[in-house]
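Entry for the shared binder. Reason: the reviewer on the internal report wants the predicted structure included alongside the sequence.
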Amino acid sequence: MALKKTWHEIHREELGFGQRLADSVANGMGSWTFIIIQSVFVVLWMGLNVVGYVEHWDAYPYILLNLLFSTQAAYAAPIIMMAQNRQNQRDRVQADSDFNTNKEAKKEIEELQVRLNAIETDKLDKIIAMLEQMEKKAN
């Protein structure tokens, strides 16, 4: 019997290369690793430009560094927004899946309730029949 794929597996298979790349970039940029690496990069950049006696390729106020950050932000913002939009899609698909699961569970619970009521009724009928037999024997 083949296992049914989850909504997440189906959704992941439908993603294109650009969508997976955007998700990876958004995950990477939203991590402490990225913040630490970028902070080390900035400190090294400024340190090398302050100490660089021979050549300051980006002297204070670090205009080239500012340009790099502006370019990074210009690309990062729409990529992160694409990833957020896909997260909204995933949330909607998951909510639909949860709703369908809950509907199925409700049906099963209702069926079990009917079965339990039938069993209970059957038991009561048997008890009443036994009591009637005992009463007939007693008379």
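Summary line for the report: The chain has four helices and no strands.
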